[in-house]
Amino acid sequence: MIKVAPSILSANFVDLKPDIELAQKGGADFLHIDVMDGQFVPNLSFGPGMVEAIRPITSMPLDCHLMIENPERFVTQFCQAGADIVGVHVESTPHIYRALEMIKQHSVKAEVVLNPGTPISLVEDVLPIVDQVLIMTVNPGFGGQKFISQMIPKIQRLNQLRQTGENNFAIEVDGGINDNNVASVYKAGADIAVAGSYVFNSDDPIAQIKKLKTRTSD
Ligand code: DX5
Ligand code: ZN
């Protein structure tokens, strides 16, 4: 069964707490927090203050996806704010190894993230030190976009690399996930699916999370 990480980017910004509680009640495995700087992606969202505010109101692990230039400038702040996982884009810094090591120094799970156009070969040398790899299945920046199905073979290739190599990372996918495509990403090797609009732009977020899990239970 796939693990589900609802993204608060599609939750109710003026009253986040009820949505976070619904995610937890629905059996969400992580809470996904999308951080955008208006530079790396053409949108702005939350900072470490949001992570700090959410930390005491949920026991779900906080999965922080940093879509920011030179994320090593902010890694420490997100770790200290209470992040359980910090994801950094390989395209966002010339010092990806340093950024990942910084995350690990705080005993926080380190994740490397790839845009749809970025080949897996670009992260091969950091795979031994990461806890997770996030394959973007949309161009980052906005919720509610269409899933890019060409990412399925990419997930398969990464999964093969994991099985043949000395690595032991989880595979997460993010963007356009719904009950029509979740089984295909799971079958390709994904362990965790982020879902924003599918969960929160619905009258029943609990049912939506359960549907994603049911679709992937053999
Ligand atoms: C996009 C974000 C995603 C987004 C997913 O930049 O990284 O996490 O919130 O939203 P949906 O599930 O609506 O594509
Ligand atoms: Zn995300």
UniProtKB/TrEMBL annotation:
Transmembrane segments: none annotated. Its EC number is 5.1.3.1. Pathway: Carbohydrate degradation. One of its GO terms (biological process) is pentose-phosphate shunt. Keywords: Carbohydrate metabolism, Cobalt, Isomerase, Manganese, Metal-binding, Zinc. It holds the Pfam family Ribul_P_3_epim. GO terms for cellular component: cytoplasm. GO terms for molecular function: D-ribulose-phosphate 3-epimerase activity; metal ion binding. The keyword Isomerase applies. Binds 1 divalent metal cation per subunit. Substrate binds at S7, H65, G141, F142, G143, G144, D174, G175, G176, G196, S197. The active site is at D34 (proton acceptor), D174 (proton donor). Its cofactor is Fe(2+); Zn(2+); Co(2+); a divalent metal cation. The keyword Metal-binding applies. InterPro entries: Aldolase_TIM, Ribul_P_3_epim, Ribul_P_3_epim-like, RibuloseP-bd_barrel. HAMAP family: RPE (MF_02227). Belongs to the ribulose-phosphate 3-epimerase family. Catalyzes the reversible epimerization of D-ribulose 5-phosphate to D-xylulose 5-phosphate. This is Ribulose-phosphate 3-epimerase.
